[in-house]
Amino acid sequence: MTAPLLSLEGVSKTFHVRPVLGAVRRVDALRNVTFSIEPGKALALVGESGSGKSTCGRAVIRHFEPSAGTVRFRGENIFENRTRSGDRAYLRAVQMVFQDPFSSLNPTHTIRHHLERPLRLHGGTADLEARLRQTLADVELDPDTTLEKFPHQLSGGQRQRVSFARALAVGAELIVADEPTSMLDVSIRKSVLDLMRRLKEERNIAFLYITHDIATAHYIAEETAVMYAGQVMERGPSDAVIRNPRHPYSRLLISAVPDPAKRFDDADGDGLAFTRQAEAVRASAARPISGYREVAPDHFVAYSDADHD
Ligand SMILES: Nc1ncnc2c1ncn2[C@@H]1O[C@H](COP(=O)(O)OP(=O)(O)OP(=O)(O)O)[C@@H](O)[C@H]1O
Ligand SMILES: [Mg+2]
């Protein structure tokens, strides 16, 4: 087994939400999250809204310090023994690509400007023009027609390619991609997913791929982790988790997929019975996990001592 590039060990994050009226509310956004990613591989985090996927991504880009647990990069705890140069190296090695490329591109700057600075920081000024053109070519954008454009002059898919180009420009080894295609037109989603696959295979870039779209998880990621209420319910090879989910919650989540027209709470058309069953599964999945059973090689399924099985 290759040494992991990134590993999370028992990572928890609690937010204290202070409403204008009423008592402070505690949100356990992450509870004991454990997984790892090898260089050049991808792990998909899937789960419904509010399950903690983005919080997990933010812990990885060091947006905040976890309330408990450790995040390691190349075996080093990213919150320990920090030096300025170590911090800079980490912030380059781990890049985030967001759902909305507009949020991370400055509307007043050209694509050239967006890429020149990171390229200079990462590799100096030598051959800058050639590297600039190459970086765009690496994400399948035509340098001649793209370099001098502003973000609003590009399509959504092209803008997202620029986000990936920026990550390449600083020499990213891990990209946290948070729903990178969900705002794109369906017809171009696949080409962006194909680009991610190429970056993995040809550049050995690892991905933490956050998505609602389980079918794409399978397309991009060797491994998939299913989250609910801040906990990882199941993780393992994508094929096994998606085709043969073992945790009742994963089954519920994945059962909603084959027919997108069906709602999550009405997946078998028998509304009421399914809704009751789904509620019971969710209530059970929200309880603290006691541990994981390895049901097949590298395929882990959560159990709770409060469960009866
Ligand atoms: N800064 C914050 N302060 C308070 N609560 C937060 C904060 N960030 C996230 N949360 C809460 O943590 C939980 C997990 O949120 P998160 O954004 O990680 O979910 P998600 O799985 O990414 O959902 P989505 O699919 O909608 O993007 C939610 O209950 C959310 O309200
Ligand atoms: Mg999110």
Automatic annotation (TrEMBL):
Q: List GO molecular-function terms, semicolon-separated.
A: ATP binding; ATP hydrolysis activity
Tell me how this protein sits in the membrane.
Peripheral membrane protein
Domain (ABC transporter): residue spans on this chain: 6-254
Alphabetical UniProt keywords? ATP-binding, Nucleotide-binding, Transport
Per UniProt, what is one Pfam family of this protein?
A: oligo_HPY
Cell location: Cell inner membrane
Give the family from UniProt.
Belongs to the ABC transporter superfamily.
Q: What is this protein called?
A: Putative peptide ABC transporter ATP-binding protein
Source organism per UniProt: Nitratireductor aquibiodomus RA22
